[in-house]
Write a structure and sequence with these properties.
about 200 residues, Gamma-B Crystallin, domain 1, 2 domains, 7-stranded antiparallel sheet, 4-stranded antiparallel sheet, globular, binds calcium ion
Length: about 200
């Protein structure tokens, strides 16, 4: 057998093994689906969160919720997404979101809800970062500094003002009531570093 022939047959065996391997991996039923790897990385970078579903983590007793799209999906799911966990915080949040009259691009609104949401992609796509009572904060605290491309404000009493890292002139102002922008524009895209809420 020449070296070339031996190499070829080795390659064939390897290819067959790889094929077997991929078939076996594909057959594993409980392989994690959804954005779990992304969530694991997020929780490592932002400790103190509670995973409340396959798609969402919550902080500050549910005042901050980060919802991740499933792989390949352009937008994060409504509410908390799939498989809401049976932990108290998840149940409370799910009830609260359920009680919301409706949502706008996944950002809940209703009689008892005062949410506002930032999205990392245009068209309300990518991660949805939901805030309930937060008066002001740095986007870097939540891993989306210089990432916001669209927003929704469903708070009927508060305006949201967004700035870049320099402060000064605001990038945009989110009117109270239901207001939204599916594209902040090329001049303001991926620039928000800080925001504050009026009547807070
Ligand atoms: Ca973005």
């Amino acid at each position: 057998m020449s070296i070339r022939t031996r190499l070829t047959s080795t390659t064939t065996v390897l290819a067959a093994l790889l094929l077997l391997g991929s078939t076996a991996a594909g057959a594993v039923p409980d392989r994690p689906t959804g954005p779990q790897r992304e969530i694991d990385a997020y929780l490592r970078g932002h400790p103190g969160g509670v995973q409340v579903s396959d798609n969402a983590v919550a902080y500050r007793d549910g005042d901050v919720v980060v919802v991740f799209p499933d792989p390949g999906e352009p937008r994060a799911p409504e509410g908390l997404g799939a498989n809401v966990r049976s932990v108290a915080l998840a149940t409370e949040l799910a009830d609260d979101l359920q009680a919301a009259a409706a949502s706008y691009a996944g950002c809940p609104y209703g009689a008892s809800d005062r949410w506002y949401c930032f999205y990392t992609d245009s068209g309300f796509g990518g991660r949805r970062l939901q805030f309930l009572n937060t008066c002001s904060d740095y986007a870097s605290d939540w891993g989306f500094n210089n990432a916001t491309s669209s927003w929704v404000n469903t708070n009927p009493d508060s305006r949201i003002v967004a700035w870049d890292y320099r402060g000064g002139t605001a990038l945009w102002v989110e009117d109270q009531g239901i207001s939204s922008d599916g594209w902040v524009g090329s001049g303001d895209n991926d620039r928000m570093s800080y925001w504050s809420r009026s009547n807070c």
